[in-house]
Amino acid sequence: MVVQLYGQPFGQVPAIEDGDFKLFESRAIARYYATKYSDQGTDLLGKSLEHRAIVDQWSDVETHYFNVLVHPIVINLVIKPRLGEECDIGLVEELKVKLEVVLDVYDNRLASNRFLAGDEFTMADLTHMPAMGYLMGITDLNRMIKARENMNRWWEEITARPAWKKLMEMAGH
Ligand SMILES: N[C@@H](CCC(=O)N[C@@H](CS)C(=O)NCC(=O)O)C(=O)O
Predict the structure, then answer these.
(1) Whose CA is nearest to atom 9 of ligand 1?
(2) Cα–Cα distance measured from residue 157 to residue 115, given in angstroms and rounded to the nearest whole number
(3) Matching InterPro entries, A to Z (predicted)?
(4) Atom 1, ligand 1: which residue's CA is nearest?
C-alpha cells in the first residue's frame, strides 16, 4: 500500500503544504518557491524570455540526461548499501560510461559559461546540487568530476554559496 503524505500519490518525499496549497515533485517545489519569493535574494528563474528559456533548457538537461543516469547510480552505490541490499555493479559500470559523455557536455558548456544558464546562478544550477552532492561523496564519481576542470570550478563555486553551507551544517556535514 502506498502511504500518501501531503497528498504525494507515489508515497515519496519531498512534498509540501504551503497554507492550503499542496505540491509534490522536488523540481516543481523549487520552482514554486523561487517564483513565490522572486523579489527576494537571487533571481533563480531568469531575467528575460530568452534567459528563462535557457534556465529551463539546462534544468531539463538535468532531468533527462543527468538525473536518469545519476539517480540509479546513487540508489545502487549509496542507498542500497545503507538498506543492506545488494547493488547492481554491472548496471553502475554501464551508467558510468554513459555519464562520462554527459559530463563532457557539462564541462564544455562551463568552459565558456560561469554557470549553466550564463553569468548568474539560477535554478538550472540549483537542481543539480542534491545529486551532485551524492556523486562527490562516491570516490570514483568524485574523480570523474574532478578530472573536468570547468565542472570542478563550477561545483566549487556553487557549493561556496552561503545557502549550501547552511544546508550542509544543518545536515551535520
Ligand atoms: N521525482 C521525485 C523523486 C522523489 C524520490 O525519489 N524520493 C525518494 C527519496 S529521495 C523517496 O521518497 N523514496 C522512498 C520510497 O520510494 O519509498 C522528486 O524529485 O521529487
Answers:
(1) 13
(2) 9
(3) Glutathione-S-Trfase_C-like, Glutathione-S-Trfase_C_sf, Glutathione_S-Trfase, Glutathione_S-Trfase_N, GST_C, GST_Phi_C, Thioredoxin-like_sf
(4) 25
Identify whether the C-beta of residue 151 lies closer than 8 Å to the C-beta of residue 115.
no
Domains of the chain by start residue, with CATH: 1-41 (3.40.30.10), 49-165 (1.20.1050.10)
How many C-beta neighbours within 10 Å does residue 103 have? Answer: 20
Length of the chain: 173
Q: Please give the number of the atom of ligand 1 that sits closest to the Cα of 10.
A: 16
Q: Note the pLDDT tens digit of each residue in 62-77.
A: 999 999 999 999 999 9
> At 7, is the pLDDT very low, low, confident or very high (cuts 50, 70, 90)?
confident
**Closest approach atom of ligand 1 to CA 25:** 20
